[in-house]
């Protein structure tokens, strides 16, 4: 926001201590690196646009002060209540004051931390030919989407005109100007005329904008509007040699006018009187006829839903009619009746919780939307249930609970597609493909992401629709198309689903130099399919083998800046805003291996060694990008860089102006996804075509089976007011990666809540390490949440979003998502998951909660897919990778006992990815442990591997691969080369302090699964303080290693094969074993590897777990027999 009179708050030039777009975490790292008390910097606020954050280092802790602009544009540090703030026009003036001692800060500002001047890297793409001038955007008379701020305009005529004018001047008039200067002239009249002619269009556009702003300014301030009009008139009256000065003057007026109108609008919004609002009821606002509806429902012959002065809505469930009545003059009523088949769609507003849009069929292929405002969100939900009940009763079509989604990505190489791309849409080619019996079955959704696509939007979409019509005989409907340069995304849906799509949003982000130049970036589309939110991102990242860091930053910029989904969830990045998020595109990550070795492996079709050196896999293992995303196993050759016209030869050398460039074959084109925990998603195919050869990239495809929810309808009728479900928290504890020591609160978001809630500030706080903070909330600090509906069937599909925010800056320090399904019960259940912010893992959160459902509202329903498999990977969110501040030597806040520390090799990560085995459910309440079931994420959330040293502290355990359907989401683990592990630092400190005591490796705690959060029947509701280093070691190990022989093997008390498999987390094999006759525990000791394969246990690691467990069981039984003797 500009200061008073249009003055920039940064002054004439941004000072070096101001860091634009610097994250909170990065600011703390810079200050920790500076290391001196009084070090400071100023960054943009993450919570308030136009505000700033002053960060100061004092006694190894970072203190943050908010700098907020007021209505007049002046800046002031936020003060305690009752303290008069000091106002400044610019940031340098503000900082100048606090450079003086005793100004109220924790310490005087002494040492500015300057921006790190990074040289502008060459952004050209040496490998793909993109260093050449990119082709002009395609021109089209009509596009599928209206032009937005990022839509490229047709600039060719302007460019050609300017070129012609310049050529004419240099050819003829230049010599006249030169002669005039020789004769003593002080101006260049012919050049002046040339510039005036070239700026003619600009002059006209500025006049249009000024006239519009002049009208707008009159709304807010008649006096200043008169002065603006006078200034504009004076500038217009100027002519001749002063035309250029006239243009510059108008541009200056335009700048000042924009700034002043923004301030006046902001000031005007603060005035909350009704009279002022009425003054704005002209064309700036669109008047809608809302209906206030009071709900009074009885499921009888005619169900009436309240009255208002304007409307009465009546739902005739049996008759299949909705009657909308409104009062007219003389107490007469006018009504409209809509039959069930004329009600096309219900659209619930995300911004206004009690607003509902109803789409009615007016004529053939035409519809009309009417919006209604209800007395509350609960009344809106009850009305929606009634309408859905009526639709279900009279419609022959059921609402789906599972859909099929096709996703394709293709870098077209700036060449039009061939006549047929059937193999792409039918998933035919290499890799994991669909069965020939199923390839022709139409998918419900088709998502096409392309890069270097020079075809105009309309032509491209029509070609896709034609292809789908030829293959499926269905006329697919386009939902949205978004384009940035030659990056496109198009989404098409089956005709029968058209009215199930709502809240469609599109966005784009540029990721070139300063996020403005170049031809790289991302486009995205989001929408609701009934009650399930979807997001799709198609990107083209920086190319070049060595530009890994640039690609990583591209991803983080897209994650932060892409504006998609529910605007109420602005505290969360897009990876947490959607039930299912799919990320596709030319990611441009390469293989780090010699070219000849790569070619040899490809010729032998040995892809595993190549995937181990794939840059994307390596960066995901370090938690640098795509945190907790999943990707199906790759079983097809690299899709880039082929010789055009063939798929037999890779072209890996290219002559450039700077020399010969090597372009190794790579899996540049990828499809990843991230879903909420305990949702249904299965990847059925992932491969590439082998017959589309127009580009040097091969098209990539993937198909998914995705669970969706629809408008819930209770089988037990509408609830009574006394039947209310509750979400209750007993306690929450979070470990946050920060050097700050402020207070925190938690915000709770969910579509199942009538309104969003927040907790009180934390009532416990401790730190065992200067870079981390443990904060806790008891039940007194946590609010009880009330869902809109109380049925268990409804609540099982709901999720809760949490964000941990600071009191000093209201900035988020970490966000997460919890599934309510595992939390439903009469006793408290425990949850434990990771926190992330801006794509980085920033800590973990755990707690005890329960979702209490009235007994009258308990029930189940059948689905096309089964319940989410609870036996998924054990979470290990307290991993040693948290305890890293890159490039900063960590200082321990307390001396740690050497017996808790690993060997020095703990900082060395394993070279290969090692996902953990699935884990079964924990002990039941009969085991004497309350709420032992963890809220486990789905298989696309595998925990990161531990550094080697920590793994060596316990007995070795195998690491089977997770099921491919769940995905192999990226794990953390590999530490950055410049990082210094806290575990290693603590060990060094402890050894120097306890030089006489050799360090001892800790023993594995027994039965950690039942231990959970350490809460028993009589435990206190707040968590006992635990050493985070101990947690990071204990909770990052495979469960088999943690339980020890007493719990990882078959215990004597287990009475069935199912219980044994469940304890090992491998209950998926129960049916196969029983089918093959292995239904008795006594005979399992005789089972062989071949027997396991016949029973469906094909994973070698799973076979080793089962056989090792049986061997340990035999040893245990022999020991017991010897003891009895």
UniProtKB/TrEMBL annotation:
It is found in: Cell projection, Filopodium; Cell projection, Lamellipodium; Cytoplasm, Cytoskeleton; Cytoplasm, Cytosol. SUPFAM superfamilies: DNase I-like, SAM/Pointed domain, SH2 domain. It is a peripheral membrane protein. Keywords: Cell adhesion, Cell projection, Cytoplasm, Cytoskeleton, Hydrolase, Immunity, Membrane, Nucleus, Phosphoprotein, SH2 domain. The keyword Membrane applies. Its EC number is 3.1.3.86. Residues 1052-1116 form the SAM domain. Residues 117-127 have a biased composition (Basic and acidic residues). One of its GO terms (molecular function) is inositol-polyphosphate 5-phosphatase activity. Signal peptide: none annotated. Pfam families: C2_SHIP1-2_2nd (PF24147), C2_SHIP1-2_first (PF24150), Exo_endo_phos2 (PF22669), SAM_1 (PF00536), SH2 (PF00017). Residues 17-113 form the SH2 domain. It catalyses: a 1,2-diacyl-sn-glycero-3-phospho-(1D-myo-inositol-3,4,5-trisphosphate) + H2O = a 1,2-diacyl-sn-glycero-3-phospho-(1D-myo-inositol-3,4-bisphosphate) + phosphate. GO terms for biological process: cell adhesion; immune system process; negative regulation of insulin-like growth factor receptor signaling pathway; phosphatidylinositol dephosphorylation; regulation of immune response. SMART domains: IPPc (SM00128), SAM (SM00454), SH2 (SM00252). Belongs to the inositol 1,4,5-trisphosphate 5-phosphatase family. This is phosphatidylinositol-3,4,5-trisphosphate 5-phosphatase. The gene is INPPL1.
């Amino acid at each position: 926001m500009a200061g008073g009179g249009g003055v920039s708050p940064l002054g004439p030039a941004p000072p070096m201590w101001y860091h634009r777009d610097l994250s909170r975490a990065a600011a703390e790292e810079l200050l920790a690196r500076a290391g001196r008390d009084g070090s400071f910097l100023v960054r943009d606020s993450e919570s308030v646009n136009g505000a700033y954050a002053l960060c100061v280092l004092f006694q190894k802790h970072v203190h943050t002060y908010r700098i907020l602009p007021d209505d007049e544009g002046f800046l002031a540090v936020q003060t305690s209540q009752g303290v008069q703030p000091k106002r400044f026009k610019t940031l340098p003036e503000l900082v100048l004051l606090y450079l003086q001692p005793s100004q109220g800060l924790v310490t005087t500002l002494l040492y500015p931390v300057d921006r790190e001047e990074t040289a502008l890297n060459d952004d050209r793409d040496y490998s793909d030919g993109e260093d050449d001038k990119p082709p002009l955007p395609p021109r089209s008379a009509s596009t599928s989407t209206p032009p937005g701020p990022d839509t490229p305009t047709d600039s060719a005529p302007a460019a050609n005109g300017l070129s012609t004018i310049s050529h004419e001047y240099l050819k003829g008039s230049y010599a006249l100007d030169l002669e005039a200067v020789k004769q003593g002239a002080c101006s260049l009249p012919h050049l002046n005329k040339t510039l005036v002619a070239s700026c003619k269009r600009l002059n006209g556009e500025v006049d249009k904008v000024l006239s519009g702003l002049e009208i707008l300014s009159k709304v807010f301030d008649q006096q200043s509007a008169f002065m603006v009009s006078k200034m504009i008139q004076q500038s217009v009256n100027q002519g001749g040699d002063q035309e250029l000065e006239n243009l510059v003057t108008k541009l200056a007026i335009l700048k000042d006018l924009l700034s002043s109108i923004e301030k006046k609008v902001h000031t005007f919004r603060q005035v909350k009187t009704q009279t002022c609002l009425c003054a704005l009821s002209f064309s700036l606002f669109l008047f809608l006829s809302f209906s206030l509806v009071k709900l009074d429902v009885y499921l009888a012959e005619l169900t009436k839903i309240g009255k208002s002065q304007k409307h009465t809505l009546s739902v005739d469930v049996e008759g299949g009619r909705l009657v909308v009545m409104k009062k007219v003059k003389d107490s007469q009523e006018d009504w409209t009746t809509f039959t069930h088949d004329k009600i096309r769609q219900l659209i619930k507003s995300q911004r206004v919780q009690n607003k509902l849009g109803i789409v009615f069929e007016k004529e053939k292929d035409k519809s009309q939307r009417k919006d209604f405002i209800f007395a509350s969100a609960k009344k809106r939900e009850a009305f929606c249930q009634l309408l859905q009940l009526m639709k279900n009763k009279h419609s022959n079509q059921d609402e789906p609970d599972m859909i099929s989604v096709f996703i394709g990505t293709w870098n077209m190489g700036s060449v039009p597609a061939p006549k047929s791309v059937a193999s792409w849409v039918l998933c035919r080619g290499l890799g994991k493909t669909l069965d020939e019996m199923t390839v022709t079955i139409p998918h419900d959704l088709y998502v096409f992401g392309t890069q270097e696509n020079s075809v105009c939007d309309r032509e491209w979409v029509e070609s896709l629709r034609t292809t789908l019509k030829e293959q499926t005989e269905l006329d697919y409907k386009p939902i949205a198309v978004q384009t940035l340069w030659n990056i496109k995304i198009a989404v098409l849906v089956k005709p029968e689903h058209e009215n199930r799509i709502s809240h469609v949003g599109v966005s784009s982000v540029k990721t070139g130099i300063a996020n403005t130049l170049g031809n790289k970036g991302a486009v995205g589309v989001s929408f609701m399919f009934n009650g399930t939110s979807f997001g799709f991102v198609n990107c083209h990242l920086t190319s070049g083998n060595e530009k890994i860091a640039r690609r990583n930053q591209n991803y983080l910029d897209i994650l932060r800046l892409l504006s998609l989904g529910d605007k109420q969830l602005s505290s969360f990045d897009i990876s947490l805003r959607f039930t299912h998020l799919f990320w596709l595109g030319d990611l441009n990550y390469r293989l780090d291996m010699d070219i000849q070795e790569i070619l040899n492996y490809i010729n032998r079709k040995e892809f595993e060694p190549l995937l181990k050196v794939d840059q994307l896999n390596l960066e995901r293992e370090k938690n640098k990008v795509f945190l907790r995303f999943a990707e199906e196993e790759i079983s097809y050759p690299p899709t880039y860089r082929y010789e055009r016209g063939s798929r037999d030869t890779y072209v890996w050398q290219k002559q450039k102006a700077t020399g010969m460039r090597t372009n190794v074959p790579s899996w540049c084109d990828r499809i990843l996804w991230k879903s909420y925990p305990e949702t249904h998603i299965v990847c059925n195919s992932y491969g590439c075509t082998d017959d589309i050869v127009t580009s040097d990239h091969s098209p990539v495809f993937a198909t998914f089976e995705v669970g969706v929810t629809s408008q819930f309808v209770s089988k037990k009728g509408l609830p009574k007011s006394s039947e209310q479900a509750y979400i209750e928290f007993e306690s929450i504890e979070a470990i946050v990666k920060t050097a700050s020591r402020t207070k925190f609160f938690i915000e709770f978001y969910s579509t199942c809540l009538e309104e969003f809630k927040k907790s009180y500030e934390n009532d416990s706080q401790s730190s065992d390490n200067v870079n981390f903070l443990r904060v806790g909330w008891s039940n007194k600090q946590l609010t009880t949440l009330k869902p809109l509906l109380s049925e268990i069937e409804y609540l099982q599909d709901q999720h809760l979003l949490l964000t941990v925010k600071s009191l000093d800056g209201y900035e988020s320090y970490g966000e997460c998502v919890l599934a309510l399904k595992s939390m439903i019960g009469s006793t408290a259940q425990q949850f434990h998951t990771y926190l992330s912010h801006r794509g980085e893992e920033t800590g973990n959160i755990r707690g005890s909660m329960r979702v209490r459902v009235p007994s009258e509202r308990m029930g189940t329903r059948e689905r096309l897919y089964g319940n989410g498999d609870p036996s998924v990977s054990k979470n290990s969110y307290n991993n040693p990778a948290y305890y890293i501040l890159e490039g900063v030597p960590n200082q321990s806040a307390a001396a740690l006992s050497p017996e808790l520390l690993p060997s020095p090799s703990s900082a060395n990560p394993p070279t290969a990815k090692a996902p953990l085995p699935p884990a079964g459910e924990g002990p039941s309440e009969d085991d004497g442990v309350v709420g032992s079931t963890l809220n486990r994420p789905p298989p696309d959330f595998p925990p990161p591997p531990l550094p080697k040293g920590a793994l060596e502290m316990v007995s070795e355990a195998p690491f089977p691969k997770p099921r491919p359907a769940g995905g192999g989401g990226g794990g953390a683990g590999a530490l950055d080369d410049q990082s210094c592990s806290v575990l290693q630092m603590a060990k060094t400190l402890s050894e120097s302090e306890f030089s006489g005591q050799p360090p001892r490796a800790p023993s594995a705690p027994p039965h950690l699964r039942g231990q959970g959060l350490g809460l028993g029947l009589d435990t206190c509701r707040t968590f006992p303080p635990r050493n985070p280093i101990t947690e990071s070691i204990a909770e990052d190990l495979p469960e088999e290693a943690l339980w020890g022989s007493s719990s990882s093997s078959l215990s004597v008390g287990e009475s069935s094969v199912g219980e044994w498999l469940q304890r090992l987390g491998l209950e998926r094999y129960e049916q196969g074993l029983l089918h093959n006759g292995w239904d008795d525990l006594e005979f399992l000791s005789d089972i062989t590897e071949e027997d396991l394969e016949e029973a469906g246990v094909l994973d070698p690691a799973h076979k080793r777990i089962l056989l090792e467990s049986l061997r340990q069981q035999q040893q245990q039984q022999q020991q017991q027999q010897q003891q009895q003797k």
